[in-house]
Amino acid sequence: MSFKTLPCGLVVAVIGRCCRELCPNAAEFCVTLESAHAWSYKHAGYCGECIEELFLSPEDYSKCVGSWINNGAGPGVFNRELYEIRPLTDAEAAEVAYEQAAPSRWEAEGRIGVYRRIVAFDIPETVEGVRVGTEAARCVVEVYNGLSPAHRQRFGGLGVHQQCQLAEQLVALESARPGFGRVRVPQHHAAEQLAALESASAE
Ligand SMILES: [Zn+2]
């Protein structure tokens, strides 16, 4: 499952969903770690239903511990007393709502939106007959985001196969540069990317 840390610091699952695996509901509550026990995130978004099911009262939690219920309260359920659980603030709720609207933004973007969906859900898709993996989609999105509107149009006009191949080459070039992380194309290197794009298109 893929998670995202929103600008407000809240961690949510893909498109603003509840952090419980495969839960399709939007995040409605913020759970904050208050205990010293291991927990992946400082502030995690959950929906109301999952809060009820996962964060048990101390009495219910102690009933689960050592029993067969919920696998003996292994990592599956939590003692509510150890966590601060509160509704999202307006600012957090606005960011979740923005994430929830991502599919309609992707829809409006056409093919590049499909790549964004592949990256967000971390699930390969067939795009216009070509199987596109998450790594290729990530490269296309990185390159696309670094281009000017005019070159976005040009890059966007390539066939899916060529587009993925070129994007992966450009990202590989960028990652070969010392001092830069893998799969990251900084805006200020757009000019060099464009030169590579031009020569690749001319072939
Ligand atoms: Zn949920």
Describe the structure.
This protein has a three-stranded antiparallel sheet. A two-stranded antiparallel ribbon has the order 1-2. The chain folds into two domains: 3-99, no CATH class; 101-202, no CATH class. It has ten helices and nine strands. The protein is elongated, with a radius of gyration of 21 Å. The protein is α+β, with helices and mostly antiparallel strands. Residues 18, 20, 23, 25, 46-47, 49-50 line the site of zinc ion.
The averaged pLDDT comes out at 83
N to C succession of SSEs? EEEEHEHHEEHHHEEHHHH
Largest sheet: 3 strands, antiparallel
Shape: elongated
Bound molecules: zinc ion
Distance between the termini: 40 Å
Count of DSSP-assigned helices:
10
Give the tally of β-strands: 9
Care to give the gist of this entry?
Helix content is 49%, strand content 15%. It has helices spanning 48-54, 58-64, 70-73, 90-100, 102-109, 111-121, 134-146, 149-156, 160-176, 190-202; strands at 3-5, 11-13, 29-33, 43-46, 55-56, 78-79, 83-87, 125-127, 130-132. The site of zinc ion has 8 residues, from helix 1.
Secondary-structure blueprint:
Blueprint: E1 3-5, E2 11-13, E3 29-33, E4 43-46, H1 48-54, E5 55-56, H2 58-64, H3 70-73, E6 78-79, E7 83-87, H4 90-100, H5 102-109, H6 111-121, E8 125-127, E9 130-132, H7 134-146, H8 149-156, H9 160-176, H10 190-202
Parallel strand pairs: 5-6
Antiparallel strand pairs: 1-2, 3-4, 3-7, 8-9
The structure holds zinc ion (ZN).
Keywords for this entry:
single chain; 203 residues; alpha+beta; 2 domains; three-stranded antiparallel beta sheet; two-stranded antiparallel ribbon; 10 helices; elongated; binds zinc ion
